[in-house]
Amino acid sequence: MHFKLFMKVVLPLLIVTVLPFSAGAQPAPSGPPAVGVVRAERQQITQTDEFIGRIQAVGRVALVARVSAFLEKRAFVEGAEVKQGDLLYLLEQPPFQAQVDADKANVAQLEAQHTYAQQQIARSQYLLKTPAGQQQTVDQDLANERSLAAQVAAAQAQLQIAEINLGYTEIRAPIDGKISQTAVTEGNVVSPTSGTLANLVSQDPMYVIFPISLRTGLDLRERYAKIGGYRAVVIKLRLPTGEIYGQDGKLDYVSPTVAENTDTVTLRGVVPNPVLPGLKAGEPGSRELTDGEFVTVLLEGVQPITVLAIPRAAVLSDQQGDYVYVVDAQNRAQRRPIQLGQSTPSTAVVTNGLTEGELVISEGLQRVRPDQPVSPGPASPPPAISPDVARGSASGTSSDEPKATQ
Length: 406
What we know:
Shape: elongated
Number of domains: 4
CATH superfamily of the largest domain: Efflux pump adaptor protein, beta barrel domain
Mean pLDDT: 81
């Protein structure tokens, strides 16, 4: 009896207490999401295309022996830079010098005989005017003189060959460059079949070789053909360390054929490779570029162009392509498909889909829904980007470049 009376009194109190608490837990309706917007404006940018390339020496020589002889002396320091004409290897010379001396003596002997034959012809022709002279004698003397003249010429040619072979005992640098380690040491017999004794590669300037797709090559030709072609493009290199190389290069060659297996065209540029300040030529690391080194090639237009640009953070992407959200006159977010052109990591160049002056949402994109109200405000300024990073731009449609996704 008392329990029933207690429940009748307590239950109404609990209901009265719980109802106000539940009503207060519901949040009040929120307003449109706040977003940061920027105005699509025209800016000046430098067009840049990025490729992977390899450094290659302009001159490359494999040093080999031209004659068979003992190697008497190596006259260079391995890894050093040498000048054209410097003595690199000295082969055994006495046998070749002896051959030259013998051939000189043979030439002198034949020349003496030839001189006597010429004098004999003169006497025979004089006697021909007298009863003692005979035409047959003149003819024989003339034939003997011509035979000796031919022998002299052959002996002189043999002497020239001997002198050439003697010269081959001195192996000299045919170009300026850096020399590799030697493959043969003193005391060994070398010959034309011994293979390469050492390699010599030039150092300044250097080639940079890089392949590009045929489609990209056609785009570059269309872009620069009317403004100077090769002269409208500067080559910059990004080193493996990420730094931009301090010397600019220029294009000098485009392959006349397309690689069938990759559908690419090979381009070549010439880049200076001077000795670094404070170092001497031939010291380790005295030059920045090394034959065979991989680098990133930046093809950069000489003159900047004016484009319609927005922050890169404003660009979204899905299976249908690139798009942005613009704010209309009613402060509603409208999805707008766009086409991108040459872009940088911080700036997207819009070639189609936007009009100058439109407001584009660049901040708070995760809260935006198509055709829904937003509360626009000025976007915060983008962080500063170093010039080295800004140069490393890629095409706005490149699959390697990260894009924002909704």
